[in-house]
Structures are given as structure tokens and as C-alpha cells.
Amino acid sequence: MPRHSSLLIWALLSVTSLATHAPSVYKGDGTFYSPSVGLGSCGKQYQDTDKVAALAAVSMRAYNPSNPNNNPLCGHKVKVWNTAKPSTTVTVAIVDTCPGCAGHYDLDLSPGAFNQLANPSVGRIHISWEFVEAVSLATGPFAGAVPAGKVAVNQKVISNPEVAESRNEL
Q1: How big is the CA angle at 134 (ends 160 and 154), to the nearest 5 degrees?
Q2: I need a labelling partner for 153 at 20 to 30 A (CA). Which of 16, 36, 125, 129 fits?
Q3: Three-state SS for 31?
């Protein structure tokens, strides 16, 4: 297929992706908590050194208010960065609910994760984050979320549509 056709397909997929998916990068506040004090809302206990996070209660409740152990967000990995130092990132798994988080996209990070982004004495930082993999949810604030710079086609995340087309992956 000629290059201009590939670019047209990529442009159409990008526009479709923007129109039908949640934002790819979320902004909120980052704080830290101790996941080792008991079971998280996803039903497991973690250590303070584990790279895990609790997502704002308002966002977690959007998916399973009656039984948090069955929340489809549990276990999803997100890449988080301190907006003051965007080159410093950490990847964490969503394993708990943050009842004290005021913003929809706030994350309460384990000390092991927070320490990679800032000195704990700061206490609260402005963060941005994105899902590492596409989220296959049809409703709610993260419906169809796709990592930044990628396109979702039939639930597959495609980083480079031109290469995917040449491999018949579309």
C-alpha cells in the first residue's frame, strides 16, 4: 500500500481513538500510604516496598461499588511521573482504594513507589499517569483508555499503525 494511504489510515485511527476513548494521560495528586497495614480493597496485602497504588475512591466505585475485590481496575498497571520531574517514572499496580483522595485521578502510592518520584518529606506531589496496557472497560471514567501515543484497534494496542498494517495486524 502506498505511504500516503498508510498515513491516512493512521490519521483516521487516531481521530477515532480520540473520539471514542478516555484521555490517555490523567493528572492528579500523588501521596503515599502503607499497604502493609492490612488487606487492600482488591483483596490482597502488599509490603511498603512493593510498587503499588490506591486509586481515588470515586474512580474505583465507578466500576464495582458492591464488591471491591471484583473491581476490574484491580491489578492494572499504570506508569506515574512527578510533573515537576517528568523524566522520573515508576510503574505501579492498582491494588487498593484511596478514600481520602479528593480528585478523580489521585493516587496514593506505596512508599517504595513514592520514593522514586520525590522525597517523602514533601508529602504530596502533582502527578500524571497513564495505563501501561489498554483498558477493556465499556463505561466509566476509564472506558477504552489507551496508553499515550498508541492506537486501539479491536481491543489491540498498536504503537505504529503503519508497521501493524504491513504485518496484517489491523
Answers
A1: 70
A2: 129
A3: strand
Question: Percentage of residues in the chain with pLDDT exceeding 70?
Answer: 66
Helix (H) or strand (E) holding 20: helix 3-20
Q: For cell 485511527, what's the residue?
A: 13
Are the CB atoms for 121 and 32 separated by under 8 Å? Answer: no
For the entire predicted model, the pTM comes to 0.73
Question: Contact at 8 Å (CB) between 11 and 167?
Answer: no
Q: Are 99 and 57 in contact (CB under 8 A)?
A: yes
Neighbours of 12 (CB within 10 A): 12
Q: 35 by DSSP, 3-state: which? A: helix
| CA count, 13 A, side-chain hemisphere, 44 | 13
